[in-house]
Amino acid sequence: MYTDLVKKNPALSLLPVTDESFQQYGRIVEEYDFTPWLKTMEQIAVPESGNVYVADDPRLCDTGLAAAVQEKLNGSMPIEVGYCIGNGSHLNALEYHKMPELDLAVTDLVLLLADARDIRGNTLDTALVKGYYVPAGTACELYGTTLHFAPCRVSDEGFKCVVVLPQGTNLPLEHLPENARGEERLLWMQGKWLIAHPESAPAKNGAFAGLTGENIQVLY
After folding, report:
1. How far from 157 is each of 25, 45, 47, 109, 152, CA to CA, in Å?
2. Rounded to whole angstroms, how far apart are CA atoms 17 and 84?
3. Can you tell me the distance from the alpha carbon of 4 to that of 57, in angstroms, rounded to the nearest whole number?
4. Type and span of the H or E element at 16
5. pLDDT above 80 for 34
6. Nearest by Cα to 59 from 47, 71, 74, 44
7. Does residue 111 sit in helix, strand or coil?
8. C-beta neighbour count of 13 within 10 angstroms
9. pLDDT in tens, 146-179
10. Would you state the torsion angle of the CA atoms of residues 30, 94, 121, 115, taken in this order, to the nearest 10 degrees?
11. How far apart are CA 194 and CA 64, in angstroms?
């Protein structure tokens, strides 16, 4: 599948997640048996259209696996275990959390990533974005400096991804900062700073439209 994706996306730097360059953005996590989460996600259907994000699902969170990840990977800090599922294939936006995020690919998928240290004046050129092909069953820890957003599907079946973050991340803010300046203009949800592409739904809903260049689409 990876070879076919590269052929269909010649303008995108698309690499396997095992490529050495991924070390700038994160690492592959192999210390855990993720079978319980993978089996639970079999019960959750991809929506007919669009994407769905659930920050915290008790079926995933109330498990021995979640307890082990919280203790050993997150230094005993409370976590939330949820998922992102859907049919998206465009970049649309990039976000960062200032804390690592664990993504477990339940299906094959592509992550579109960039480095937050390349942001200039709250803007980023999408030409700096790289794609990484992540096979089903692979878990990746994305560093706090890594810009990312919803995965992109690589088949008609859509994508499924378990998402682990510090507890409270992505919950609604009580209010956005008044007279926001600088990075404050990117604050979108609790623990979430977001830069949207002007063509995207987040931008139309008021997110800061700081992505310039093409709204990248992953073709399959």
Report:
1. 27, 10, 10, 11, 11
2. 19
3. 34
4. strand 14-16
5. yes
6. 44
7. strand
8. 13
9. 999 999 999 999 999 999 999 999 999 988 777 8
10. 20
11. 32
Give the separation between CA 58 and CA 76, rounded to whole angstroms: 18
* Tokens 């809903």 found at: 205
Residue in the block written with tokens 């259907």: 45
User: CB-based contacts of 162: which residues, under 8 Å, 6+ apart?
Assistant: 34, 37, 41, 60, 81, 82, 83, 102, 103, 104, 106
Please tell me the pTM assigned to this model: 0.97
- Residue 66 has phi, psi (to 5 degrees) of -60, -40
Name residue, tokens 């990075």.
Answer: 183
Alpha helices in the chain (DSSP H): 2-8, 35-41, 58-61, 64-68, 201-204
Q: For residues 58 and 170, what is the distance between their CA atoms, to the nearest angstrom?
A: 17
CA distances, 171 to each of 20, 72, 187 (Å)? 34, 24, 12
Q: Which two tokens stand for residue 191?
A: 């623990």
124 residue type, one letter = L
Residue type, 110: V
